[in-house]
Design a protein that fits this description.
Oligomer: single chain
Distance between the termini: 99 Å
Largest sheet: 7 strands, mixed
Structural class: alpha+beta
Radius of gyration: 45 Å
Shape: rod-shaped
Number of strands: 16
């Protein structure tokens, strides 16, 4: 990825356009070309022209340097352990060095070592303006720095350094630019003039931009891939909203159908008990109706079956011996012409086998209901009979 470096130049007249000194490096940080005082609106076309001349693809990362005089850069001395939460306490530590409320200032911090942290501070309203200026340039990633962020390790005591056309001094842990008028009157010439090679090497040595990139927190810039991801996130969110709306509507329809089904079930139960009050209550309407139908069929047939107690007990014993799984007959009762059997088994499959065994031994019995008692299943069977 090619690297485009800008030194932003603020116009002396408010209505005049911003300009920038421009450096273009290859993807391997080899210097290609530079230009002085290029209008911000013309930079995209200039970059395109240079890349076409070098037969390179149109993808660049942008590193922009804010005007040094509009920021405050300082090396703070901290106590051991403070580096863990330096971003929270840096504004308070910087308050005595600034001439405006810290609430109006944007801070970024980079821990240098356990005793020192580099702080860059820029007015928030000015950061908004800088963000708009940088947005005029097309780039995959965008970073904004104070020039001082590359210089704080380059000074000896009482030393002047020139970088990108500006002279700097590092005094009492404060790294600041010197006005041209003062530099011209000073008898001391800059001890170091840092050129394009220094800029190139400094950018190569930058292992992490965190803490020097002013585009952090509320001023964070989105890369092209992040904007694309954000688009898909918004699309996913809208899809989720539509899905949630559909699910809510389906839930509402299911609720309406459930209410209708409950109403119909209650009406059917009442109708059944009106026709067969001797049932007492409805446990399983389908099974109870089937049982009543079988009972009526058996009464309509020629009464050649002897459902005497002896006959029923014999059939029950035969059915019991036919079942190999664990089971236990707990109750035999006779009420209103119906034998009632309560049979316990380890699972419901065994109760179903008991029903099949009754049918195999010609005993007209049906499973009325099944309840769970402790670890056993208890099935209630009914047999139409007579004494």
């Amino acid at each position: 990825m090619h690297q485009l470096v800008l030194q932003l130049i603020e116009p002396s007249v408010i209505d005049d356009p911003w300009t920038a000194d421009v450096w273009l490096f290859s993807d391997k940080m080899v210097f290609i070309v530079s230009e002085q005082s290029l209008a911000m609106a013309d930079i995209d076309a200039w970059v395109q022209e240079q890349l076409n001349a070098n037969h390179s693809e149109r993808l660049v990362d942008l590193i922009a340097f804010a005007p040094a005089s509009r920021g405050h850069a300082r090396l703070l001395t901290i106590s051991k352990g403070q580096e863990r939460y330096i971003s929270d306490i840096a504004p308070t530590l910087m308050e005595s060095f600034l001439a405006q409320p810290i609430e109006d200032i944007h801070f970024v911090t980079k821990v240098v070592d356990s005793n020192g942290v580099w702080v860059s501070a820029v007015d928030r309203e000015y950061m908004v303006q800088l963000s708009q200026i940088v947005d005029m340039v097309t780039a995959v990633k965008k970073r904004l720095l104070l020039p001082q962020s590359l210089l704080y390790k380059r000074f000896d005591a009482e030393e002047f350094v020139s970088f990108m056309g500006t002279d700097y001094r590092f005094l009492n842990d404060h790294l600041f630019p010197i006005p041209h008028s003062f530099a011209a009157q000073s008898a001391t010439a800059p001890s170091k003039v840092l050129d394009e090679d220094f800029l190139r090497q400094s950018l190569l040595d930058m292992k992490s931009w965190q803490g020097v990139n002013l585009f952090e927190r509320e001023f964070a810039q989105q890369s092209s891939s992040q904007k694309f991801a954000r688009f898909w996130k918004i699309g996913g969110f809208l899809s989720a909203v539509l899905l949630a709306g559909s699910c809510t509507w389906l839930h509402y329809e299911a609720s309406v159908y459930q209410q209708q089904a409950t109403f119909i079930e209650n009406k059917a139960n009442k109708a059944f008990l009106t026709l067969a009050p001797e049932e007492g209550r409805v446990v399983n309407l389908k099974r109870q109706i089937e049982g009543r139908l079988r009972s009526n069929e058996s009464q309509e047939k020629v009464d050649d079956q002897d459902y005497s107690p002896y006959f029923v007990l014999k059939k029950i014993e035969q059915a019991k011996q036919d079942i190999k799984e664990q089971n236990e007959l707990q109750l035999i009762a006779f009420r209103d012409g119906v034998y009632i059997l309560e049979w316990a088994a380890a699972d419901q499959d065994t109760l179903a086998k008991i029903s099949k065994s009754f049918a195999r031994f010609k005993l007209d019995a049906y499973l009325d209901q099944v309840v769970r008692e402790d670890k056993l299943y208890v099935g209630s069977y009914r047999i139409q009979g007579m004494l």
